[in-house]
Amino acid sequence: MTKRGQAISEKNTFHRIASFQKVLLVANLCLWIYFWIAFAQASYPFRPDPLGHPAGSGYTFWGHSIAVSESPMHHPFFGVVFYPGFSSFALATWIAQIFSPHLLLNGFVAGVSGGGWLLLGIMVLTFLQWALVGWLATKLWRKFFTFDCN
User: Fold this and answer.
1) Rounded-to-integer distance, Cα 51 and Cα 41, Å
2) If we measure between CA atoms, which residue out of 43, 46, 65, 63 comes closest to residue 115?
3) Among 2, 24, 50, 64, whose Cα sits 20 to 30 Å from the Cα of 141?
């Protein structure tokens, strides 16, 4: 193979591998779009202090809540996001515990509960998580499956 042909082949391989990271990010975006649509359909109006819970418990966005008096895992869409993004959930919860040891995420800021802000932070972290996984997979692919034919 000529040097020019080899350069073109390497460029196409690089483009294919780099696109793997893009696929992961687009898949994560689709997952979160599904989550927010399902959240909007499953949410119920926030009721102040149901069952003695403090205002702002659960995941509340501008008066629409889930998981105020039930487990968020009761909703299938929450599990669909939770398991692939487990490391992001764990990291965000750990960071929240550092800044608030008793996880006092109660109350509202701009109409969003503390749990809602945590969920938004988790969403951002999942994009970073999958970008890192795609980058690492690309590096490993290049290391183990790129052959030099010189």
Assistant:
1) 23
2) 65
3) 2
Read off the amino acid at residue 32: W
Token pair 């000529």 in the structure block, residue: 2
How many structural domains comprise the chain?
1
Query: Would you state the structure tokens that stand for residue 75, as one six-digit string?
Result: 């909703």
Give the domain extent around 126: 3-145
Q: What is the mean pLDDT of the chain?
A: 80
List, for residues 49-76, the tens digit of each pLDDT value. 656 655 556 788 888 888 777 778 888 8
Q: Which residues contact 135 (CB under 8 A, 6 or more apart)?
A: 21
Name residue 99's amino acid.
F
Give the Cα separation of 118 and 113 in Å (integer).
Answer: 9
Whether 150 is in a domain gets the answer: no
| Residue partners of 99: CB distance under 8 A and separation at least 6 | none
